[in-house]
Design brief:
Shape: globular
Distance between the termini: 31 Å
Mean pLDDT: 85
Largest sheet: none
Number of strands: 0
Strand content: under 5%
Order of helices and strands: HHHH
Low-confidence stretches: none
Radius of gyration: 15 Å
Oligomer: single chain
Structural class: mainly alpha
Number of domains: 2
């Protein structure tokens, strides 16, 4: 949730994470309601390694995707720009409760691969 993310950023800034990563922090500090999605990185921890697999499924109804790479990521290489743009939109959908069960990465195509494919088309 947004509160958990804010709490994480505060702990990170204060240097009190003790090496804890986002998913561990979320489980420890934000309770079971934060079960969420273990496949998604915090925006500040996302690292681009390679393109996601091509999706073989359609997105659930109601999930929105960006139409283009966000201007704030335009200076990054295209793959990394798509990843950051998709991550930002994923969290926007999450905050609006419009993911409808879609995870960041999942068999057949999670949010990342669906979003990446849309940005490439």
């Amino acid at each position: 949730s947004k509160e958990c993310s804010t709490k994480y950023q505060a702990a990170k800034s204060a240097g009190t994470l003790n090496g804890m990563k986002w998913n561990d922090f979320r489980k420890a500090e934000c309770g079971p309601g934060a079960d969420d999605d273990d496949t998604v990185p915090a925006p500040t921890e996302a690292t681009y390694t390679s393109e996601p697999a091509k999706p073989t499924v359609a997105a659930p109804k109601g999930v929105s995707f960006p139409k283009a790479i966000s201007p704030k990521f335009a200076t990054e290489n295209p793959g990394k720009g798509r990843m950051h743009t998709c991550l930002e939109q994923y969290y926007a959908n999450k905050d609006a409760n419009t993911l409808n069960g879609l995870k960041w990465i999942q068999k057949g195509g999670g949010f990342y691969s669906l979003c990446n494919a849309k940005l490439k088309s």
